[in-house]
User: Fold this.
Amino acid sequence: MPEKKKTILLVDDEPDALAFVEAIVSEMGDFNIVKASDGESALREVRAGLPDLIILDVMMPGKEGFEVFYELNQDKQTANVPVIMLTGVSEERHMKFSAKAMGDYFGSEPFAFIDKPVNPEKLQKAIQGALGG
Amino acid sequence: MGVEYQFEVDPLYRIEKFMASMTDLDSLLVVIMREATVATDAESCSLALYDENTDELYFYIARGEKEEREFERRLRYVRMKMGSGVVGWCAVNRKSVNINDVYSDPRFNREADKQTGFVTRSILAVPMLRRGKLIGVVEAVNKRAQNGFFERDEKVLTALAAQAALVIENARLYEDSVRRARLSALGQAITGAAHCIKNILMGLDGGSYILERGIQKLNMESVTQGWDILKRNTQIMRDLALDMLTFSRPRDPEYEASDINEICTGIAQMMRSKAHDKNVEISLDLHPDMGKVTLDPKAIYRCILNLVGNAIDACAKADGMTKIATRLLREKDSLEISVSDNGCGIREEDMKKLFEPFFSTKGSKGTGLGLSVTHKIVQEHAGEIRVESQVDVGTEFIMMLPLNPPTKHNSVN
Assistant:
């Protein structure tokens, strides 16, 4: 039975970063790629149609990545979607949210944290893990 | 007894009043030395500082006379070894010394008198100590109309020496805290620059990844996309380097008689296509028949370009409007250049940090230095820049430049 194409939602305010992640994802196979350039539109896309994976940038103007993650966890339906977070700030307050702390605070943890500039192999491995599991 | 006590306290009281109003170390020390001269009824008082690094003493305030400043400045280069002369002895032994007839005291160094022609009769020297550390020595020279200084004079001079030591310690602590603040600011600037560079790296990595895949698969679309991203990010890198250089170095404006309206028109024309891509209209409201004004055209061009770029980004939505305006305000002797938009506005809490280096609300779009550089250029023109903004209504940046700027001669630094 042919498997339905998986949908991956990419969220990043930087168009160049979005293009980069899209290229990395396309290399892995045939996915239905949906793009959003801010937190609000990302949440809208999720409510319109549940993706199989969300790749979410942390530093965004307006609704930050963490805020989006928190809201996703509020709703039982959206809470099950695996999330890979991309962070450009490896020190400071963003890293204070270690995966465990996020678990305590948000009720669940993102599947993975990937540092920017993104290492394509690392991201692809994380995507495989998030979708495979 | 009562009168004596007052005589001792008065100079201290006067100095306290001065300390509250003065911050310049030299001025404070001169005041203290003057008080010492009067209080001990000496011909003059001097202050020598101890240099920890070289274990030497040097006169910092000589004779307590402002007119002697040039003499003092040169005297600061004269170094005395610890232990040499009365001042040196006082410093080494950390004890006051009161000598009525210096020429009969082996500690006295006759060389200074020989060189200056001054005849020293009596010396009262008191060490300046702070928390057990030697700061230097204060000395009173030639008690008037008497053979030598009294015990009372030693008490007064000791109290004033303590004041001087306190003042010097405070000045050094202040210098330390300024240095630390500067280092911390430097640290923050480097972090900000590193963040911007990381974003550029992301762009370069992304662009080359896409370009390489395109070449491998002979896909022209990917090749073009990748190349565009590479070009864009190398431009951002260039902008960042230029901004950092401009921001870090003080620069006198290269004044020229300039046609500011022409500059604004040029910028509007150049930015029009970028603006249209974001649904933004650029309009001009220029003061008619302005003629030429004195400013640095390249620098002001950068300022206006930065402000217009920000404005377009802020109102990039439907019906976005950016306006560049110029006004000649003869009554205020100034030129007003303003850039306004009907965009997202600036939040109250962001207003204070607006001109800080690498503070940005645009995410990774700019270098983070645009406004800092703009602010710096306006200041170097002896001008002012102010902001008026309302969230979701719009923002206006107003630069006021003097029509007759102070002409500083160009300094080589």
